[in-house]
Amino acid sequence: MTRFPRLLLLDRDGVLNEDRPASVRHRDDLALIPEAIAALAAYSRSGRAVALVTNQGILGRGHVSKAEFCAIQTKLITAIAAAGGRLVSVHIAPDARDGLSDRRKPGPGMLLEAMRQHRVSPAETLFIGDAVTDAEAAQAAAVAFRLVLTGKGRASAIARPELPAFATLAEALADLGASA
Ligand SMILES: [Mg+2]
């Protein structure tokens, strides 16, 4: 039976906002998924901890300024707050490519960092994302994983059919509630 995790980790692009092939480089390109923001907010309003874990190689590659990136994040955080929710922490890997550090997914670094910060064990943590690299990072951190079929999710489900998959973040979280 699934239990509410003490710490829920969420990927950003393709989960909370629409995935873009060239990444989100400007605040106007951040197309939030309203149902996902609402589901996250409702979940966090019940007092449960949610943290963001996101690769943003565009930072390391210089495709977005720090100021614009902050504006993009502010747009996201503001929308979550407007819906009544909050994130307990935000973890960003700016690495331009894989292998520069273990923070960039599929490395486990950001997940380990979040669990250390919030003093929870892998068994108390759940990661929800849309990419195969999210699943790999979860596995490397010994954390349970759920795939959402938004963003890259449908392609990820074809590549990794054994992953537990849910149509949307709302459905993934509703299932936690139903079985808690
Ligand atoms: Mg993603």
TrEMBL record:
Subcellular locations according to the entry: Cytoplasm
EC number, UniProt record: 3.1.3.-
Cofactor dependency: Mg(2+)
GO MF entry, a single one: phosphatase activity
Site residues, Stabilizes the phosphoryl group: 54, 105
GO biological process: carbohydrate metabolic process
Organism: Elstera litoralis
InterPro entries for this protein: HAD-like_sf (IPR036412), HAD-SF_hydro_IIIA (IPR006549), HAD_sf (IPR023214), Heptose_bisP_phosphatase (IPR004446), Histidinol-phos (IPR006543)
Positions of Mg(2+) binding: 11, 13, 130
Keyword list, A-Z: Carbohydrate metabolism, Cytoplasm, Hydrolase, Magnesium, Metal-binding
Protein name: D,D-heptose 1,7-bisphosphate phosphatase
Top-level EC class: hydrolase
GO cellular component terms, A-Z: cytoplasm
Similarity-based family: Belongs to the gmhB family.
